[in-house]
Description:
Layout: H1 2-26, H2 49-52, H3 56-60, H4 74-94, H5 99-120, H6 125-141, H7 148-176, H8 183-196, H9 200-221, H10 234-258
Helix pairs in contact: 1-4, 1-5, 4-5, 5-6, 5-10, 6-7, 6-8, 7-8, 7-9, 8-9, 8-10, 9-10
Amino acid sequence: xxxxxxxxxxxxGACIGSFLNVVIDRLPAGKSLAYPPSSCDACQxxxxxxxxxxxxxxxxxxxxxxxxxxxxxxxxMLVELGTGLLTAFLYIHFRLVWMLPxxxxxxxxxxxxxxIDLKHQLIFPAIVxxxxxxxxxxxxxxxxxxxxxxxxxxxxGAAVGAAFLLLVxxxxxxxxxxxxxxxxxxxxxxxxxxxxGFPNIIVALFVAILMGGLMAIxxxxxxKKSTKDMIPFGDFLAISTIIxxxxxxxxxxxxxxxxxxx
Length: 262
């Protein structure tokens, strides 16, 4: 029975990943997510369900359109596969409790935001604001009806996250005389605060800064970027939020124990 649940959530996640590919492609282009139906970008032939079955269609078609032979971006399969594996992992970690559907929904939003920012260096309020409102509602009703504790700590987490990134943005602007990040990152920090609450927002920000810093060092050392180039930060915020959703409290407790504050 256990393996059946794992397979089910893996397939569910792959289907979610298929929809996320639509969001990633269409939202930055200002297109509708519902219409027109999916078609090949090269020949515009409408795709059937056999052409869009998550992961397996890409493998079966060898990464090419069935009708014109145009190459399908490998990102399509990677998003489906990655979302499927992540969703199966979330089931294994949380089991069938209230946090499972919440974490799946949060992760889907974060994957879309992170990949759009990675490709276009844009964080769309059209995704962030509805997700932030949803997370605020979740804090109000879950896990117990009218759980004021979660609601207040979600508000505090949003305030701390936004204040910190706004301060970083202003300091960078003053010291470097140019923008280092945009308001999209600040809006995202609000959403993150609602999702993980306080004090876990501190963990999410720290992990994002650590990953972003290490990646920047790597890119500069291997001359992929210069010290003046911009590096999208939304994808690191997205990854760190997913990590915090799963391991935020253990990381925080480990750190407090390490510095002997707990």
